[in-house]
Amino acid sequence: MKKLIVIFIPLLLISILHACKKEVEVMRKLTQEEMIQRVISNQTLPPDILIVDRKGKKIDTATLRRLNNGEMATDLMVDKTGKPIRKIVREKTLEDEIFHSRLSLAYGGWTPVTPIEIPCQSKKQILEGLHQNYFKIKQSEATGKELWNQHQPHEIVVNILEQCGLPTKNEVGEEGINILFLLLRANSLDLTARFYPELKQSVKRGDLHGNILAETEDRFLIMHNKKQIYGTFVRPTGEGDTMEIYPVRDPENLDKRRAGIGMMPIREYVDFLEADCDCQVLIPEELAQVLNQ
Known about the structure:
Blueprint: H1 2-26, E1 28-29, H2 32-40, E2 50-52, H3 61-68, E3 72-78, E4 84-91, H4 94-106, H5 123-134, H6 145-150, H7 153-164, H8 169-187, H9 189-194, H10 196-204, H11 210-222, E5 234-236, E6 243-245, H12 254-260, H13 266-277, E7 281-282, H14 285-291
Parallel strand pairs: 2-4, 6-7
Antiparallel strand pairs: 1-3, 3-4, 5-6
């Protein structure tokens, strides 16, 4: 009898451990794009959803206060059916701040775009025509000319992305890939937010210059009065034509970040802006102190 009990207990422990392991395995963290889709489709979270720390423990009052003040972030865990199980609280990152800006733009859905049939084999010619028309270089005779005569340019590029996927620079040329994202960014910020992953991918594989990504991320941050990363935006000071660089986070490493994405040092950028706008561009005191060291 004792022998049976001894055998039974290990088997019971193995069963319990297996069940726990199975429970952990079926839980997964929603991706940012899945979170955005939940918002667009108006899927709400259960009011009694469990909120825990990384160790699975219930968060204390101080952590809850920081979370409610926007100082912390959460990961939403779901089961294999996609049902929300718990939110895991963690320290907030810069990536979270950019994501939350995108998420806020997704509420109510993305800007509606008219469906257009795109001949994907002609996407290079279509984008060349958009480039020519946008910069008024010449009257294009490229394939697909009727598209930009009948539709808004941003609708054409959205349909290209949706039907043909993200093109490479080898497929559509440098002008083609540049005009695609230029038209998205020029139309509305929510379209930029919608196709932000594609923008990052194009920069990562070297098809697009990093300054476009830098401007986009800075724009996401300043729309919520957050300090920018790369110092790409300026604002009026209220004194004549004088402008100033919008506040920058971690000014000590600003030029290092700019260099890492292929941008000129901030002082050279200020000189460029002043020559371009024929105005004075001031550097915030916090940043100026770093540059003068």
